[in-house]
Write a structure and sequence with these properties.
Blueprint lengths: L1 H39 L6 H7 L5 E2 L2 E2 H31 L7 H21 L25 H7 L2 E2 L12 E2 L11 H7 L12 H9 L24 H4 L40 H4 L18 H7 L6 E6 L4 H7 L4 E5 L7 H7 L3 E3 L14 E7 L8 H14 E15 L3 H9 L4 E9 L4 E9 L6
Parallel strand pairs: 5-6, 5-8, 6-7, 8-9
Antiparallel strand pairs: 1-2, 3-4, 9-11, 10-11
Helix pairs in contact: 1-3, 3-4, 13-14
Keywords: Glycoprotein, Membrane, Methyltransferase, Signal-anchor, Transferase, Transmembrane, Transmembrane helix
Pfam families: Methyltransf_29
Subcellular location: Endomembrane system; Membrane
């Protein structure tokens, strides 16, 4: 009888200690919560009580109390779920009359979740207030909003070593992420959930989704980017401009097509809708250098005519649109350096531009351009913005282009199209900055739509 009782007694003792530990953690979390709420003023009197309980002050002295409360609640939920699992296992073992505690269950269902709850508890950041002051908070109030520790490490300000001031004249570095990342918490935490130093998931499409939804700039990551398993050396520079790249240099896993040949404009299932024919070098060679092809219109300006207006003055510029870098390739032949913006909207546009020996800039419409004021000789745009764009958004974009254009720089609006009824509104947007007109052409696109091409020069504005 003594022997048969021994496993049950040992098991009951183990389960009892585990439940005591869990109960202690719950009590600790509760005390921590009460302490924080007391320090935040939740047990004040008079009108302060109303302000707190009716969410009039979710952020106390720069610290997000709501996020803190949510994080504490998440840890308590984890502990309660673990306790429920233990109670369920105890009942199951009692029915089986003396079955020994399964080791795998102990490791997977108890030890691992308990460790996660412990880590989550330790990650809760209570703001540190400078002694002798009333409300100087050192912690960022968003830290408690995210669960993944890698995000929390990223957004925490990094103080300089040995108290020195860095070359920017600051005592710490603040890493930035777009404010809209808060709206896409689960997606961002999935993006940042990786093993440090290991290979990243092939999740560029997740990153691009976050960028397009305003979570931009994204946080940096400490994992290794995957490359194609069959990566080959790019073509020599004297060949790469007008030769289709080797398809083995692209990761095709997230596209409908699996090679460059599939991206032909003759393939209705190629996976992208803009820039028809932009992966066919024979068609691309005709753009901006001749008006003899069947698709040419009076709105199609030639590069030679544009450069002649500012002979020798156009050296660097930005091509803001969607494409495979053909405009930059043509300008390179004229000794002009062009950076091309690109997004991988259904096809590997960034890889294509880079494999041609040109510079792709991976940015969205949401982002302020990473160039300093008054630095670009030329801004060219085609194919990306048309009559779908909101006027207020276009206004912000135009002012950003104006910011980076130098005095005397050229703004080339190339084949912008919109509904005839909206033309006056868009014309006003392009003319409001009082640029000098070098070229201004309107041409019918269809019965209801029109093209607009313009070449405008930024005034000096020497103040």
């Amino acid at each position: 009888m003594g022997r048969s009782c021994f496993p049950k007694c040992k098991l009951a003792r183990i389960m009892g200690w585990i439940q005591i530990i869990l109960g202690g953690l719950v009590i600790l979390v509760s005390l921590l919560s009460l302490t924080r709420f007391y320090s935040a003023g939740f047990f004040l009197h008079n009108e302060d009580i109303c302000q707190h309980f009716y969410n009039l002050r979710d952020v106390s002295d720069g610290f997000d109390v709501k996020s803190f409360s949510d994080r504490v609640g998440e840890v308590i939920d984890m502990l309660e779920a673990l306790q429920a699992k233990l109670e369920s296992k105890v009942q199951e073992m009692e029915k089986n009359k003396g079955t020994m505690l399964d080791k795998k269950f102990l490791e997977d269902q108890i030890v691992s979740p308990l460790h996660s709850a412990n880590v989550a508890l330790r990650q809760i950041r209570v703001p540190k207030v400078d002694e002798g002051t009333n409300s100087t908070v050192k912690e960022d109030h968003l830290i408690n909003f995210f669960i993944i520790e890698e995000i929390r490490k990223y957004i925490t300000p990094k103080e300089n070593r040995v108290g020195k001031i860095n070359l920017y004249g600051a005592d710490k570095v603040y890493n930035t992420i777009g404010h809209a990342c808060v709206l896409y918490k689960k997606e961002l935490e999935k993006y940042m959930d990786y093993d440090i130093g290991s290979y990243c998931d092939d999740d560029w499409n997740l990153a691009q989704k976050l960028m397009l939804n305003g979570c931009d700039p994204l946080p940096r990551r400490r994992c290794l980017t995957r490359a194609s398993k069959e990566y080959q050396k790019p073509h020599p520079i004297n060949e790469s401009l007008w030769r289709l790249p080797d398809g083995r240099n692209v990761r095709w896993g997230n596209y409908q097509c699996r090679n460059f040949e599939c991206l032909s404009s003759k393939n209705p299932k190629r996976g992208y809708s803009k820039c028809i024919g932009c992966f066919q070098m024979e068609k691309e060679k005709l753009k901006w250098v001749t008006n003899n092809n069947n698709n040419s219109l009076v709105v199609d300006f030639l590069i030679s005519d544009v450069l002649a207006i500012k002979q020798g003055e156009v050296r660097i510029g930005l091509d803001y649109g969607i494409g495979t870098g053909t405009f930059a390739a043509r300008m390179r032949e004229q000794n002009v350096t062009i950076v091309s913006t690109a997004l991988n909207l259904g096809a590997p546009f960034n890889e294509m531009i880079a494999l041609r020996g040109l510079v792709p800039l991976y940015v969205t419409l949401n982002q302020r351009l990473p160039f300093f004021d008054n630095t670009m000789d030329l801004v060219h745009t085609t194919g990306f913005m048309d009559g779908w764009i909101d006027l207020l958004l276009l206004d912000f974009i135009l002012y950003d282009w104006d910011r980076i254009l130098r005095p005397g720089g050229l703004l080339w609006i190339d084949r912008f199209f919109c509904n005839r009824n909206d033309l006056d509104d868009y014309m006003y947007m392009f003319l409001q900055l009082r640029y000098k007109k070098h070229k201004w052409v309107i041409s019918p696109k269809s019965k209801e739509e029109v093209y607009l091409s313009a070449l405008l020069e930024k005034p000096p504005r020497a103040i």
